[in-house]
Design brief:
177 residues, alpha+beta, Alpha-Beta Plaits, four-stranded antiparallel sheet, 6 helices
Length: 177
């Protein structure tokens, strides 16, 4: 079964470096098959019959042991990612795929957190929380977006990582190859 592994907060600067070739080797050595990466921000497509939560725990442990720091990991099956793409609740307004983000969560947000996020939306931004995904449209970019700062913070109460729509759809294409 194809699984998509997404790491949070790596390779953004000089620290927390995880070379993709080393990551592929690490995961292959751990028994995962068909391990492929996409860009340097920690996107992996691999084959495994393991439960996504088990892959999250194992990958986080392997990375911590090998690289010496903790990395939050979120996993979706190929079918779960296909559902994320099919839902696409902001597809009719999100014109620039680089500014259309999906935050992937390990569990659903508390209602109070969802309310707080909705309060951060400043038009023309848009937000849809759907289960373990948060779709966010940032037409003016994320640099000054209070919504993006809220989504990117560690104050969501759950492990999360975000990808732009280009990355989301590319990962699905890779899983379908």
């Amino acid at each position: 079964m194809k699984q998509i592994v997404m790491l949070r907060g790596i390779n953004l600067g000089p620290t927390r470096r995880v070379p993709m070739a080393e990551l592929r080797g690490l995961l292959t050595g751990a028994g995962y098959e068909n391990v492929r990466t996409y860009v340097q921000s920690g996107n992996v497509v691999l084959s495994s019959q393991a439960d996504p939560a088990e892959i999250e725990r194992e990958c986080a442990g392997l990375i911590s042991e090998r690289f010496g720091f903790e990395v939050p990991v979120v996993v979706r099956t190929r079918d779960e990612l296909a559902e994320v793409v099919a839902r696409n609740p902001l597809g009719d307004v999100a014109e620039d795929r680089k500014r259309y983000q999906v935050s992937f969560l390990v569990q659903e947000l508390e209602p109070e957190t969802v309310e707080r996020l909705h309060q951060l939306v400043v038009a023309p931004e848009a937000l849809v929380v759907d289960g373990r995904e948060v779709y966010a449209w940032h037409p003016e970019g994320v640099a000054r977006s209070k919504l993006w700062n809220g989504l990117a913070s560690k104050n969501l109460g759950v492990t999360s990582t975000a990808r732009n729509w280009i990355t989301v759809t590319t990962l699905l294409e890779m899983a379908d190859e």
